[in-house]
Amino acid sequence: MSEEKNNPENSHNIEKIYNESAEHFDVNLGGKKIHPKKVSGRFRNYKNFTWLFWIGYILLPYLRWDGQQAILFDVPHRQFHLFSITVYPQDIWMLSFLLILLAMMLFGITAIAGRVFCGYFCFQTVWTDWFVQIERWIEGNPTQRKKLDAAPWGAVKIRKRLFKYFIWALISLITGITFVAYFTDAYQLWIDIFTLEAHLYVWVTLLTFFIGTFLFAGFMREQVCLWLCPYARIQSVMIDKDSILPTYDARRGEPRGKAKKGVIDAKYGDCIDCKVCVAVCPTGVDIRNSALQEGCIMCGVCIDACDDVMEKVDKPRGLIRYNSEKEIEGIDLPAVYKRPRVIVYAAISLFSITAIVVGLLNIPPLATTIIHERQPLYAMMSNGSIRNSYTFKILNKTPEAVDIKISAEGIDGIVMKGVGETVTLKPNRLIPFNVQLEAMPDKVKDKKVPIYFTITGIDGDVKISERYENFFARP
């Protein structure tokens, strides 16, 4: 039997699929600008859900915590506020572990499920989604937008374009302000901008993000993924035969054949070559040529589109599906925890998380640096004693003043001068001061003798008791 006949409703569905996909396919590949067809389905819903992550990013600077901005990278004062935790440059070593953690998460997720970050979380993908959605609301479906592109400038075209550009510009402006708001008081920032009293750095940063967002998300769109993003070019290094990717089942779909007058020829595979998968792709990629193309961001909307077509032609869903190369070949996929690459990524990530958590929970209240003066290394006093001088730099990381007492030991009869009984450290300030130690020559056995400074908190809620080693020099 060479042919399978469909019912009239199925015949109508097939003709409709070809008519619509022909228009969209021409829009995607025949013109200079890609207008992806709107699609619905679970993967499109996943993409919409991840928008919440970036909406949270926009709203987060306005959240207050204990009377101050919850997240504030206060560069001028060298303080990074993360809710109730304040991180200083002396604790910036935790940033290296954070960067390692983010890299390992990216590599691990890519090894497991491909370019999930590109398809769902990348700011370029999300902002482009927003801009395309606004364009769809204002200018219509891809066919209508194509006609508007080709139409001469008139009142309707100018009105729609100006309205679209205005909304794009508004989102771009909010994007720039949001970024700046993480580095200064968010509420004061709006006042400074509207009163034109913002710092030059604010205007430069704001303008840079405004122009970048407007051009990249509004006009360049998929070209950023195709030509500017380095991740597209290194993805093959992180993906193996076990990685689950949007995959076209060629064994089931080939050879491709177009349905004629509602009749599907049985000698062909399930793919009716409608090209709807291409029409919905935000980068214009044909998934049937592999998901490892530079332009494929593996967002899965082609799966939604193909499943919809398969239902309309009475074929099983899953012609395009998330699958690994091994599974397509009929080989069982090993468990994630048995894959060496994933195990290594997970181990490094766990170590980084542990280091960050331990670091945040054990940030010392004081950061102390003690420097032995080199010129002169020592001085002989009129009473016969030897004097060594030291420069103390103590950063009080707490939001309250702290009184401390400094003592020295290691040499019998050593005397400390230059500081009183107590030293008051102002809150969130670096306090420098000098300390001198004097000892009699007969008590100093070698040319360099180890000594120990002890810094003790006298009162208050901050409990401090720290010991620092240095040396005492003699002729």
Largest sheet: 5 strands, antiparallel
Gyration radius, rounded: 33 Å
CATH architecture group name of the domain at 366-473: Sandwich
- How much β-strand is present in the residues? 15-25%
Low-confidence stretches: 1-6, 25-31
Distance from first to last alpha carbon: 107 Å
How much helix, percentage-wise, in residues?
40-55%
Q: Can you put this structure into words, describing what you see?
A:
It is a single chain. The chain has 475 residues and is of the alpha+beta class. The protein has 16 helices and 18 strands. The protein has a domain at 366-473: Immunoglobulin-like (Sandwich). Helices cover 45% and strands 19% of the residues. The strands form six sheets. Strands 10, 11, 12, 14 and 16 form a five-stranded antiparallel β-sheet that branches. The chain has a four-stranded antiparallel β-sheet with strand order 15-13-17-18, with no helix packed on it. The termini are far apart. Residues 1-6 and 25-31 have low confidence and may be disordered.
What distinguishing features does this structure have?
16 helices, single chain, 475 residues, disordered N terminus, 4-stranded antiparallel sheet, alpha+beta, Immunoglobulin-like
Brief account:
With 475 residues, the chain is α+β, with helices and mostly antiparallel strands. The protein has helices at 8-30, 42-59, 93-113, 116-121, 123-139, 142-150, 155-181, 186-194, 200-220, 222-228, 231-238, 250-253, 276-280, 301-312, 325-328, 340-361; strands spanning 3-5, 64-65, 68-69, 71-74, 79-82, 85-87, 245-248, 263-265, 320-323, 366-372, 379-380, 386-396, 402-409, 415-417, 423-425, 430-439, 448-457, 465-473. The longest helix is centred in the middle third of the chain and has 27 residues, at 155-181.
